[in-house]
């Protein structure tokens, strides 16, 4: 459970996590195996359609949450079930403790429940003098270690078999081997007596079906069935968001839950409970059954137009499975109680701003969580919105305030970027010996220690906006008229990438324009919570580049393109610029898709016999824009010998300002990427994003690698037949 007081303390925790080699190795192995298992489990299914169905059904249930609760309560009472509604975590804990007192229960066995973790139920019950035992293996292990889960589905993934053996040796008073099968037998032996002695069983619920007042439990261990059947009192603690109208709605989610969680087609156990069953040891011959529904902010969330989609979450944990940051630091540093991307959001609403304010900074915005979410939740966007709310509530810091002031004034912003050419002179500029690029010879003292893992680029002698008037092609009767959206990095750091774009269009009937009033896309402002200025900058761009004048607005920075595509969400339907933003976004296209799919360039356009090259897929291209095939196809057409790279669509660790805030995490993610690239034996690594070029080229230069890093436009322009 993450509970730090300031950002410095949080970073200290992160350093410790990065030093935990076993944890990183264990999570890394699972992260590499997970996509393969998930794809196999979903084989033959229309995943997008299923996700859309789940999202629509969950949205409908969320809009009727109060109504579904009342229906569930009516049907439950007919079946002899006691139903309670707790406003908050404390009230839920009190209710369950009072049930134990009234029924004379002293010993409690629990099945895994994230809702019980949310309320810190065990702490409260133990404070009331009750004996509480977790019975799922992972939960029992972390209970004995007095720590929270590090994953919503695999709570003890961060621990080695040796650590568990040592723990079990302490518990049993006997030396235990680290053999996993034997350790499982020890756990069964120790827990068996707990089941026999227990008065009360506490479970969670994956589903609460309103039409029948039934609950559903999905598990891989049989302990949940023992917890819900053996003790004479059963209490289920369940969030209001688990309410669904019918069994059909639950089964729809069940098609996705195990597949998305662990790559299983079905879990070992699926248990459906409707009312108290027979129990000869209980008064009246029947168990006593209670269901405690927890609100804890869920009703308010359901009424929030920005965040209500969070309640769609089916608790599969997939957002952690694919997160490059979670992969580096583990769940204890990437969540408070709820883990992963969803945890960064839920922490704010369930446990407060102070618990969330440092966690939300640690999102690299790679979009992997959004791409894998079984309920279609736009997790990265919501994390940034949480951050923006926190900034609005606590005050904007000096860095973001200054950035906001500068970026709302395009001339001032561009003037400062131009001045960077002179400001870098005290630090020197050098040519990359093996990489085609310029680097700062040595970093400013404030950056030299933390950012020494990569070389940083120098500001170009001339920005692209000064070069373009001299290279703008004259095209009569063009097939297409396009505007180039340059972005800050390519305009002022890598103008050669935009020159490459113009040259790649040569003789293809493309009239090219570069509207000079364009400015930054606004993504850095979103990342820093400056939403007001983000909107002002967006307004400047949609007025600077009139979408009516162009067939396409071509962008060779996917981060920019993805953000530009989201401009309609910034303005909203009622805004005066909303319609213009819609038209603007519709014209945005990435360079690879334009060359491959629109211009339909072929092998005849390029030289043959190119070098062996591999590819890195920028996060905002493959996930933000959902472009996968076009870059690889155009690379192959250009005569390059394309060699696939391991984890091509995994983040390189850049994330814009993220690599400045968390350089140690960025460094480790980059190391994995560079190792995978070099393992291909390719002479060249190609990517479509200037930020990825900066990160990967800087890393390759630092390690003295012979692998040359190039932007797609540069390579294609060079390989065009003259």
UniProtKB/TrEMBL annotation:
Residues 303-333 form the 4Fe-4S ferredoxin-type domain. SUPFAM superfamilies: alpha-helical ferredoxin (SSF46548), NagB/RpiA/CoA transferase-like (SSF100950). The keyword Zinc does not apply. GO terms for biological process: lactate metabolic process. It comes from the Bacteria. InterPro entries: 4Fe4S_Fe-S-bd (IPR017896), 4Fe4S_Fe_S_CS (IPR017900), Cys_rich_dom (IPR004017), FTHF_cligase-like_sf (IPR024185), Helical_ferredxn (IPR009051), LUD_dom (IPR003741), LutB/LldF (IPR004452), NagB/RpiA_transferase-like (IPR037171). Pfam families: CCG, Fer4_8, LUD_dom. GO terms for molecular function: 4 iron, 4 sulfur cluster binding; metal ion binding; oxidoreductase activity. Keywords: 4Fe-4S, Electron transport, Iron, Iron-sulfur, Metal-binding, Repeat, Transport. NCBIfam families: quin_L_LdhH. This is (Fe-S)-binding protein. The lineage of its organism: Bacteria, Pseudomonadati, Thermodesulfobacteriota, Desulfovibrionia, Desulfovibrionales.
